[in-house]
């Protein structure tokens, strides 16, 4: 079981990394690749964070992980759930190739895999509830940087972050995502707290 979990994490992480690399290569091949735009997408950044979370967790299979590793795993599970949900509910009509394998990996498998990994092999000691707000720290930092870019150079990665829509509309969408993210984080934390009863 321990070896199987480690191998599964490594394979999924490799597939996610391959999908991101393939998307970058497609942009390079057709001349549309701009590094600071490509890596500015929330989807790309959080797939890479998910890769890191899986790879690091694979090194700790069968033994207790540091708190920061568990927080990284929880954050990746929450943010990739948001990525998958937002894509299939809001962004699907804007994508010309929704069924491409790369898209299915970065907007589907990644979220499912990180949530499943968390639920199957959650923390052996429950994370303190005081860490919950940190789950949304990185997404909020990303939003802040993205809005500054949108106001200065006119680039924005997703239609709902277009400054032309007005900052009140953007605040409503971002606020809803933050609330949903905190709710998901609390749900995922609660789902694994039973492990506190299991000897390490």
TrEMBL record:
Highest taxon listed in the record's lineage: Bacteria
Protein name: Pr6Pr family membrane protein
NCBIfam families assigned to the protein according to its UniProt record, in alphabetical order: Pr6Pr
Keyword line: Membrane, Transmembrane, Transmembrane helix
Entry keyword annotation includes Ribosomal protein: no
Keyword Transcription regulation annotated: no
Protein source organism: Demequina lignilytica
Transmembrane segments: 39-62, 74-93, 99-120, 127-147, 167-188
